Amino acid sequence: MKRVIFGMIALLALGAGAPVGNGYEIGDTVADFKLKNFDDRMVSLSDYKNTKGFIVIFDCNTCPYSKAYNSRIIALHEKYGNQGFPVITINPNDPTISKGDSFEKMAANATSKGYKFPYLVDETQSVAKAFGATNTPHVFVLRKDGKGLKVAYIGAIDNSSSDQSAVSKRYVEEAVDALLGNGAVTVTKTKAIGCGIKWKNS
Amino acid sequence: MKKSDPSPRDTSFAEYNALVLGMRILVFLGLLLVGPACEGQGVELMKLEPLRQTIQQEQRVQVINFWATWCGPCLKELPLFEKLNGERSDIRILLVSLDMDLDPDPQKVRSFVARKKLKSTVIILDERNPNEWIDKLEKSWSGAIPATLVINNKTGKRRFVERELHAGELEKLISEIE
Questions:
Q1: φ and ψ at A145, to 5 degrees?
Q2: Which domains does chain A have, with CATH numbers?
Q3: Average pLDDT of span A175-194
Q4: Beta-strand (E) ranges in B11-105?
Q5: What's the angle, vertex CA A9, arms to CA A4 and CA A14, rounded to 5?
Q6: Cα(A79)–Cα(A31) distance, rounded to whole angstroms?
Q7: pLDDT band at A19, cuts 50/70/90?
Q8: Given pLDDT bands bounded at 50, 70 and 90, which one contains residue A15?
Q9: Worst-scoring range by mean pLDDT, A36-40, A54-58, A78-82, B102-106?
Q10: What ipTM did this prediction achieve?
Q11: Measured between alpha carbons, how far is residue A164 from residues A68, A70, A144 in Å?
């Protein structure tokens, strides 16, 4: 019996802070959230009345992949923001583990880059957990239908993180283009190397 | 026929000896300079298929850690693998660097391995387009690092953890698959 209890405690300990395998799947309805933006404003998905969907990206200041993709994230908003698919970035990293992801540093980063889209702080990490985000940058394309917001794509921005000229698959653009043309998204899930989210107490 | 072609044979014996000595000194000095940097030279580039084969063929319990030199939490947990590598010769430790994905310069990894004097076997995964190879290694893996696979081919058991490990956790994972 002692062994069983010990094993259970061990399993619980191993599972703590790693909500891998949970979260939204393709077609799931997304719950709204309310998070603080880098400009101190509170932002919810329901604030946007006339959008067709969203490009939600879990992102941060510090990850080399986030840095490599930063200009591509800004370009996504420039391209799709006024077509009804604005970008919303969310930083889930625990700033006590990742010092460069403090609210002040987020605000400085977003201001210097001239973000025209939200860069929200997910202080309790509950939004990242609800989505099942694992790394940065991790993209969720959402589309609006009569009943709410549905997940249409989960994964990477494109298939070449280091060399932008070698990109041959623009996953997010292909998904949003399909949704804008009322077509079906062909590639709905992709994987990419990235920085694991810095979970609290993990 | 005149022997006018310049060749080493035409050089006088004394000159030849001086030349050899000079070269030896140069090589010796060269080794002194680059010696420490050479330690990381054993770090091989490996494609996915040979990596999968070597994992499948191994009879010992294996701990395969996916890391990169840019990844802070990966570097924090590296000593756990190094410690295990020193303590348990019955376990194979393999540190798979994913550096090439972001920066295709293997020398960065080799210098790191030399500087940190890593004793565990390090290989550099030589693949592009993670979307094509991540699932072939582990279906449940999102691609976030650090990540660690603990596998026992004899029992067919495996554990996969997609986060930083802390002291004691590795031993627990190993005991679960032994």
A1: -130, -175
A2: 23-196 (3.40.30.10)
A3: 96
A4: 44-46, 61-67, 91-97
A5: 125
A6: 26
A7: very low
A8: very low
A9: B102-106
A10: 0.84
A11: 9, 12, 30
Contact B145 A161 (CB under 8 A): no
Tokens of A196: 């694991």
Query: What confidence score (pLDDT) does residue B129 get?
Result: 87
> For tokens 């509170």, what's the residue?
A42
CB atoms B146 and A194 under 8 Å: no
pTM of the model: 0.83
> What residue in B sits closest to A63 (Cα-Cα)?
B71
CB B134 within 8 A of CB B127: no
Alpha helices in chain A (DSSP H): 2-15, 64-80, 103-113, 126-131, 171-180
B:3-62 residues touching chain A, CB 8 A cutoff? none
DSSP A137: S
Does B144 lie at the interface with A, CB-CB under 8 angstroms? yes
What local confidence, expressed as pLDDT, does residue B22 receive?
Answer: 62
In terms of Cα–Cα distance, which of A136, A123, A107 is closest to A197?
A: A136
Asked if B139 reaches chain A (Cβ–Cβ under 8 Å), the answer is: no
Give tens-digit pLDDT for B108-119. Answer: 999 999 999 999
CB–CB of B131 and A156 under 8 A? yes
Instruction: For residue B158, give the amino acid letter.
Output: R
CA atoms within 13 A on the CB side of B67: 26
Which candidate from B71, B102, B144 shows the least CB-CB separation from A161? B102
E strands present in B74-174: 91-97, 121-125, 144-145, 147-152, 157-161
Chain B hits for A166, CB-CB cut-off 8 Å, are: 128
Is B177's Cβ below 8 Å from some Cβ in A?
A: no
